[in-house]
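In response to a reviewer's request, we include the raw inputs and outputs for one of the modeled complexes. The three entities were modeled together in a single run.
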Amino acid sequence: MILQTKLFDHLYSFGSVKEVLAKANEVKSGDELAGVAATDATERVAAKVVLSNLTLQDIYNNPVVPYEDDEVTRIIIDGVNKRIYEEIKNWTVSDFREWILDDNTQDHEIKRIRQGITSEMAAAVTKLMTNMDLVVAAKKIDVEKTANTTIGRPGTFSSRLQTNHPTDDIDGIMAGVMEGLSMGIGDAVIGLNPNDDSVDNVVKILNKFEEFRAQWDVPTQCSVLAHVTTQMEALKRGAPVGLCFQSIAGSEKGNTAFGITADMLSEARDLTLHQGQAAGPNVMYFETGEGSELSAEANFGADELTMESRCYGFAKKFDPYIVNTVVGFIGPEYLYNSKQVIRAGLEDHFMGKLQGISMGCDVCYTNHMKADQNDAENLAVLLGAAGCNYIMGVPHADDVMLNYESTGYQETATIREIFGYHPIKEFEEWMENMDLSHNGKLTERAGDASIFLN
Amino acid sequence: MKDDQILSVGIDLGTSTTQLVLSRLTIKNFASAFSVPRINISKKEVIYKSDIIFTPLSTQTEIDANAIKRFVANQYQKAGIDKQDIQMGAVIITGETARKQNSSAVTQALSGYAGDFVVATAGPDLESIIAGKGAGTNLLAKEHRKNIVNMDIGGGTSNLGLFSDEDIIDTACFDVGGRLIKVTPKEHRITYISPKVKELISSLELNIQEEMIVTADELKPIINCLVQVLENSIGLGTKSPYFDTFITNHPLHPENRIDGVTFSGGVADCLNETMPADEFRYGDIGLLLGSGVRNSLIFKEKTVYPSIETIRATVVGAGSHTTDVTGSTIAYTDGILPLRNLPILKIAQSDELLESEDLSEKISEKISWYQVENELNNVAIALVGKHSPSFDDVQRYAAGIVKGAQVLIAKHEPLIIMIHEDMAKALGHSMFARLPAHYPFVCIDSVKVENGDYIDIGEPIAGGEVLPVIVKTLVFG
Amino acid sequence: MNEEDLKTMIEGILTDMTSGKGSSEKKAISNTQGSNIASGTTAGSVASGEVLDDITKIDLRKQFLVPHPHDREGYLKIKSFTPARLGMWRAGCRYKTASVLRFRADHAAAQDAVFSDVDPNLPKEMGFLETQTTCTSKDEYLTRPDYGRKFSDEMVAKIKNGVTPNPKIQMIVGDGLSSAAIEANVKDIIPAIQQGLKVYNLGFETKDVIFVKYARVGAEDQIGEITNADVVCMLVGERPGLVTAKSMSAYIAYKPKIGMPEANRTVVSNIHDGGLPAVEAGAYIAEMLDKMLRLKKSGIDLKAAENAGN
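The model returned the following structure tokens for the whole complex.
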């Protein structure tokens, strides 16, 4: 294992694989805040050079959080298929990158190799990829998962319908749901972030969602994004949980900060499979985001991209229907501006897919970040090109409860238009029946919430 | 704040029946953890429904107060509660009963007896609102986004409450009911005819009078006429010449659209298409009237929605839907609650913009209106207030109010201020600075009131953060 | 209509009455609820002097751009239940111009609130003690939350010498993430808190209020240690949303110490003209301060004590 290189005659030496990984990362304010970033641009490239020459075995042997200390590391390492790992352990990270990008490498081969890699390997290869690499590599990989309907089929592009309300006014929430559905939004999930995280409130909203979904026979799944324990209690009270949600982190300590353990998620999955509304087998929904470990002081000196990759390795254990990175939500101290957000969005999407996750992205920014809606649209188009499974559908891209900006109903409709994508098959058939689309084109009724009135 | 509960009683002394319900109202903080509490009633459950008894009368013109007391005591015992447990509630004397000679004496007697709560003596408008809410018409109007009128057809009167989207927009009352004529169940001998029906009989030149034995057919012209009045009351059919005769106080305003109808009251349980074999089973014309309504234009031309409560609508409304709460950003001094039957003195909104000196003059002038024969009773001063006021605005309001209310302060009447906009706590603090030391006052917001309303304010609940309030709308429209 | 609008309108009317002209100006000023696109001029490309209506004055809950809705009344009704931008329709699969411009205007206000400083005259006019955390620029403030919680030794000395030591209540005003929030609310909330405190025989002097530039909430912990206050209350600008850029919060803590758990803070959020009005928030905060001094607790400990019925 070689941890040093010269660039322009200057010697760059790194103390550990973890340091190489961190310094090879593209510029992120969160890595600077954590004190793990490269000092300058040349050092960053030096780290990439060193990283490109490390073998997958070097990466495997050096998880960023020790196996003994961390449940997430154990889940990732224990999940590796040793035979497949043996086949690839001598590949350098550079080899791995070029193999993925190779014209002859097929989706089914990636699906097999995926079983032999760790999250740190996925992170490592991502650090060697350019933005366009990340698009074309991700585009190759199809990840299909099934709850009530199947997401991720080639040629489809889906959205989560997110109509949060500052006081959870159910009529206000449903107004947004109606308008979204009329625009073809919500085929991934109708999912609400509740303001009031009480079991009573969660049950109330789930019941309303299911009542409406059943009344109009909408082929999708519903979720209320409360803490997993709250949803489990709601399930026990008979609430129609479609997808069981939880925010997750890339270390055990980070998950502790979220109030969860792997056992808890297994139990939630089991309960949802047995008592939930969706047929499955994929009934979990997770959210992640670069920087969340650092904000919980649970990053163990690792960079935010590597920690993010570990979220997907952890998520894989629960075979989720969907996972999305909430890429720009965390603020400028973790992702400074639109350039960093766009990069992180592409990285997260690729790393997730590479690890077999049905990836979506909440393409978003807060108002104290140097970004605007044009930047969000840029990333949305890039993700559309990269074959992302879904993005968010928030009324006019403005979330009035969480106070941040995401993508609107229009963005999903536009990406479908640009790339010729379709909603999930059953959902599109429903739209045709409802006279909301004709031969894949929105009709004059699309966008009119009041078709669901009376 | 913890969730808290209020036990509320509703007692309906109607023309024909008397009943009681106990409701449990849950008070909940709807705000998120880091916000100022936003307190509201989250759940209304009827936990006990009494037997329905015929309203006991000692004579045709007097209510038997002792029998009613016995009934209430008996029901409390059956429900397993003490009257001390009851925090709020309303006794509603409805229909013709309200016109009995001793009706106010009965409510007074009951108020002490049924629990230490606030008693609302209803007028027909309040009764219409309460019955509509008890029937669930407001919820239906909201759900279907239609204007829906509830017709509460009781023994002596029919109370109409028109709801648009949960809000009451109009009320009306007619002297049409199932017990305008009473007969003996077996012989069908008439024992009672209401004065207005007597007028109708003479004007139709019918040979019907008390002590006579009658058949349903003989009563048909009267029933037809009553049904026509009800059709007319929601704008259907050709206008009956007797329409005006049967108006209790006022009809609905014709400009409001009516999309649908709900029925409550005793007659709502008699809306049969075909007449049962024994049409005088209840000793009155309820079944005849019910059948008449069922076959009327109302069912042909309007959507009729099922109501949640029929004969119990008024009592459920009285028990569950009269109490409101105000809380979190209010100010009051200890030891002055509950307060009952305070008339609302509403300051004209244009006057609220005046400088404090001029505002105080307007307030003191209005207070003097309530001075009857040199007796001044306390009033609740109501204002709209200002949306997001500046600190100076609050000072101006406080100065104007305290100066304008000098005549009340001189009498050491507690100062009761109700303001619609969210500014009561700041206003209360500002008044505190201007009032004499330890002067009693209440300053609450977010309660909508109008001139002509009366208000009751209950004792604080939920650790003192919330005050229950009953607004009694006695004049409407 | 607020006092400002009213004043403007009355001035407009007075001008009309005295000069008999200016009807077009009046329309532009008073017709704030109307269409957002004023009727165009017909005089070729010559600037007419007319003013377009202020699109930020349109009530979003009432703005409705769907051309042929299935049920207009019903749509408006359901839309009224949420501040979300519904009923904005579309141009093809994109947004209508009016709605996209309004979005950008609201976002611009939010960004300006974050990236500009509080008017330097405000702390001077109010007579606050002016301080700054170790951040040296807005950029550093945004990317280094740790710097926004600390004061230099020099600044510590300034605070020590500048305010009354060992107070019962130490008030702080910090810019936080919205200068607009501070500018909009501070002048009304400070006297409202002072007035409310009188009810409880408490108080503080305006000259003892510390103004902190580049402030994170944690800055109140160090100030608590420096001043040895019983209760520290920091008013700070919230991260702006598009609904309002002027929302402020109060973070109140009993005897805060550096490294204290976040759960020990009591928060009163959403203070702005469309949320909890500043004066009412002030009255509420005064009561909270009294409660904390009596119970010697804040945050979840205070909640627990209250729920236990103390």
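As requested, we also summarize the result in words. Residues 121-307 of chain C form a domain with the Rossmann fold fold (CATH 3.40.50.11240). Chain C is about 40% helix and 10% strand.
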